[in-house]
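Trying the structure run again after the queue cleared.
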Amino acid sequence: MLLETVRESVLAGNGPVTPSAVAAAVQASGKLLGTAGALAAAESINAELNGLGPLQQLAHDPSVTDIFVNGPDSVWMDRGQGLERSSVQFDSEGQIRALAARLVSAGGRRLDDGSPCVDVRLKGGYRVHAVLAPISTSGTLLSIRIRREETFTMAELREGGMFNEHIEALLHAIVERRLSFLISGATGSGKTTLLSTMLGLSHPSERLVLIEDAAELNPVHPHVVALESRHGNLEGGGALDLGELVRQALRMRPDRLIVGECRGAEVRELLTALNTGHTGGGGTIHANTAEAVPARLTALGALAGLNAEAVKLQVSSALDVVIHVERTPLGRKVGSIGVLTESLDGQRVVTALRWGPEGLVRGPAWPDLNARLSASSPREEDTTAWCLPVGFDAPTMIGYE
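Done. C-alpha cells:
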C-alpha cells in the first residue's frame, strides 16, 4: 500500500515530516501516478501524517467551522447553515482512533484508557476534543473546531443578515460608550464572531486584554494582548485556569478586559474586575435565551463559592447589556438586546430591542438602555451626546411593546 510505504520511508529519516519529504518519498516509491496523481497522493499522505487525515479536505473549505466524527461512515460538518452530513468516510474505527491519538499527542497530551476524554489546541487554529470507548458507546468521537483568521467587519455581518443598520448603530454605541456587555447564545450561534468584530470598534488608544480557554478571538485592533489557559502536563502539573489569568490580567493595565467564554469560577474575577473601574469589558456566555443569563451567572458564581445574593450584587453594578444571538434557518442573527435590571422577582434581563414577526420591536427596557448610553462616554475628551440613529422613531420600521 502506497501510504504504508511512504510512511515507513518518511519516518525512517532523521528530519521532520515535511511536505517536501513526503513528496520525495512518493516519487521514490516507484509508483506510476503521473504528475496530478503524485501531487494528490502527496497531499493525501501529508494530511495522514501531519494534518487531519481524511478530514483535511473539509478543513480546506473556508466556510467550515466545525467537523464531527461519530463513526467511520458518520462525518458531519457545519458551514454556517446547520449540520450537514459529509461524504468523507473512514476505513475503520481503528483509523479514527489512530487519528485522534495522533492529534492529541501533537497537542502535548495523551489519549488512552487512563485519559479517555481530552481537549487540545493545535497549530493551524484547530481545537480538538476526543472521546474513547467505552466512555463513548459508539466508538471514538472527534469534535474539531476550526479558528479562521478572517475577521468580519460590521458591514459584512450586516450584509450577511446578522443584524440591520439600527442594531449595527446600537452595537457601535455600546462599544463607544463603554457599556459592559455579555453576548449570549447557544453553541455555534456566532457569539465569538460578533464579539471579535465588536472589539475591533474599540478606540485605537485602548489596550485590550483577551482571556480564553482556547484562542479564538482575533479582533482587528492595534493593541491586543491575549492570554490562553493551559491544561496540566502528563504528570498533571503546570495548569493555569481562566480565573488565575483574569487576576494576572488586572496587573497588565487593561482598558478592556474580555473573557472569551464565561464557563466556570472565573466569572467571580471578571465581575470583580468590571466592578473596579474596568468598564467596557465583558465576554460570551452559553444560554438558550437572554432571560436565562442571570440564572447562568448564579450557577457559575456558585462554582466560585458565591451565593446567589453575592452574584446579584456583583452583576447589578458590573454588567449593562446582554446581546443575544440565535441560529435561524437563514443563518446567525442578533435576536435581542436586553438590559440587566432588578425587579420584585429578582434579577432579570429586560428586552430593549428584539426581532419579532413584525420586524424590530422596542421593548420596555429601551428607555433604560438609552439612558445608560446617554450617561456614558468613551473617553474624557469625548463630549459628544448619544443620539438615536436615524429611523429609530419610524413606526413603520420599529414597533413597540
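The chain has three domains: 1-50, 52-147, 154-400. Worth checking whether this holds up in the mutant runs.
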